């Protein structure tokens, strides 16, 4: 049975969230998050991007970016604010998009992947970069294997069964072609070069045990990005697919909170937006502000 | 440094300086640079500090001893430091998780305190309404939904209170009280545009002023058309459903 790939769109208020899934995957992997954000009032859109989403012919990463930009512009024409949220390579694509469209409200980077350097990536993975320039380019496909980005055993078993009978599951594709991986590397290199120019509010959520992209990826962005409102959240009970794994509720709740705080902050010009009545939180915010000044 | 000390040390401990260098590189830069330094040190030390000096292609017992002992010692130290570095990296990540959770906890605690404050204010408003039910002139809603509650306390209390108050609020966001019609319309218009917490003075209509005088035992001339000024009190209530200003005639 072939799983259908189609855009997920949920109508909400004037703050729309463009959500970009992972490489050669489908909007299914962001279904839970999209539904949660919509329940919190956001308009959510998880588009199918031609040349990037599973089931379409691979295209250059510039085509991915153009397709994402078109989706962004379509939302920006209809809604007052548009934020961008990406998972895995989708997070790298989000950074590239927010660099191209700096008027975006905020960007949320979930399991950001700028390099495949997690603990489950085989040591010979670098050979695939060379294989792209060989006849293997169109013949070989990198096959996903356990743990499929999931720490949850029950869900992992279910995904393993789905991978066996279908091209992709709700957490991603069973195989990825070499051209797609090559374009992802190009996209990551492009993002690395201009991440310092990004000034939008930024949320980073990453699992410390991410088996696909190590914590060095978000650390690089957190230390380089020019955002004044930057929040980093580390998880310890998930692997790469944090939108489907054990802590998906935390991911969804914190993403919704951050996007709403970003909206209120930009509307009122007040740092944080929400009144701070907790003395402990006020103390912590002062500490963070002092650390920010020290870093600057 | 080993080269400077060579006249003094001679063939003694030819690899020590390189072992120290490899361990320092491992501590500050990681495994791959440390192994590179160790291998480079092995070649350099064997060439320069193991007799016969500066001769290639001659291997004797001292060379073999050095080639075995130096990497062995250096690798033991590098391995230990690498393990400590990995444990440190892991500990830093776990500390980052703890910090993230602490900050999440603080944010949720702040939300809880805000919600409790709003509940207290709602209760105060309800007590106020019941205590001064006959003295109200008007209730003005400043905003139906405070910005800071957007989507954060998607909770039942806010919805419930909003539902109750929505019934009482007319479209103009001014709810008339029992004494609304007693106040001069001009004062009502003025207050509708510029109402703030604190004391106000309004004019009661003539007949109502007479009735008030009668109820308080004061004398009032029949047919007196002059309106009477009375003191009013306006209070602000920040509730789940938004901010409200309540104007009532003072005691």
Automatic annotation (TrEMBL), chain A:
Keywords: Plasmid. Residues 16-246 form the Serine aminopeptidase S33 domain. Coiled coil: none annotated. Gene3D superfamilies: alpha/beta hydrolase. It holds the Pfam family Hydrolase_4. GO terms for molecular function: carboxylic ester hydrolase activity. It comes from the Bacteria. The active site is at 88 (nucleophile), 210 (charge relay system), 240 (charge relay system). This is Carboxylesterase. It comes from Paraburkholderia largidicola. The gene is est.
């Amino acid at each position: 049975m072939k799983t259908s790939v189609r855009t997920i769109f949920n109508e909400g208020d004037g703050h729309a969230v463009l959500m970009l899934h992972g490489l050669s995957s489908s909007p299914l992997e962001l279904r839970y998050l999209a539904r949660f954000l919509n329940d919190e009032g956001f308009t959510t859109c998880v588009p199918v991007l031609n040349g990037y989403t599973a089931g379409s012919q691979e295209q250059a990463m510039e085509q991915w970016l153009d397709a994402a930009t078109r989706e962004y512009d379509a939302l920006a024409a209809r809604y007052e604010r548009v934020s961008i949220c990406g998972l895995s390579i989708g997070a790298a694509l989000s950074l590239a998009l927010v660099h191209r469209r700096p008027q975006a409200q905020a960007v949320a980077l979930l399991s950001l992947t700028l390099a495949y350097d997690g603990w489950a990536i085989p040591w010979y993975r670098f050979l695939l970069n060379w294989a792209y320039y060989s006849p293997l380019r169109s013949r070989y496909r990198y096959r996903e294997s356990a743990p499929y980005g999931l720490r949850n055993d029950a869900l992992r078993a279910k995904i393993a069964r789905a991978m066996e009978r279908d091209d992709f599951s709700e957490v991603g594709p069973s195989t990825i072609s070499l051209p797609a991986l090559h374009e992802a590397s190009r996209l990551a290199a492009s993002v690395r070069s201009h991440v310092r120019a990004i000034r939008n509010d930024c949320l980073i959520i990453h699992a410390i045990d991410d088996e696909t992209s190590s914590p060095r990826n978000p650390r690089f962005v957190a230390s380089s990005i020019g955002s004044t409102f930057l929040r980093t959240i580390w998880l310890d009970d998930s692997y790469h697919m944090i939108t489907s794994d054990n802590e998906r509720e935390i991911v969804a709740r914190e993403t919704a909170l951050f996007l709403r705080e970003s909206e209120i902050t930009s509307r009122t010009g007040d740092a944080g937006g929400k009144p701070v009545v907790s003395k402990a939180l006020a103390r912590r915010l002062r500490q963070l502000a002092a650390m920010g000044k020290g870093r600057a | 440094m080993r080269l400077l000390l060579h006249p003094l040390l001679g063939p003694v401990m030819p690899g020590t300086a390189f072992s120290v260098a490899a361990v320092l590189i491992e501590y500050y830069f990681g495994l791959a640079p440390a192994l590179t330094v160790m291998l480079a040190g092995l070649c350099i030390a064997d060439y320069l500090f193991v007799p016969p000096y500066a001769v290639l292609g001659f291997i004797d017992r001292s060379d073999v001893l050095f080639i075995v002992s130096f990497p062995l010692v250096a690798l033991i130290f590098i391995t230990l430091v690498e393990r400590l570095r990995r444990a440190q990296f892991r500990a830093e990540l776990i500390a980052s998780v703890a910090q993230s959770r602490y900050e999440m906890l603080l944010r949720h605690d702040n939300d809880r305190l805000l919600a409790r404050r709003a509940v207290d204010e709602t209760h105060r408003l309800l007590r106020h309404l019941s205590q001064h039910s006959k003295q109200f002139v008007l209730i003005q809603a400043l905003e139906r939904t405070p910005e800071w509650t957007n989507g954060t306390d998607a909770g039942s209390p806010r919805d419930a209170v909003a539902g109750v108050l929505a019934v009482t609020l007319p479209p103009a966001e001014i709810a008339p009280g029992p004494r609304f019609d007693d106040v001069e319309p001009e004062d009502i218009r003025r207050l509708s545009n510029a109402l703030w917490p604190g004391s106000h003075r309004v004019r009661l209509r003539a007949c109502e002023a007479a009735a008030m005088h009668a109820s308080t035992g004061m004398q009032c001339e029949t047919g007196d058309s002059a309106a009477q000024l009375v003191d009013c009190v306006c209070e602000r209530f920040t509730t789940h459903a938004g901010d409200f200003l309540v104007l009532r005639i003072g005691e």
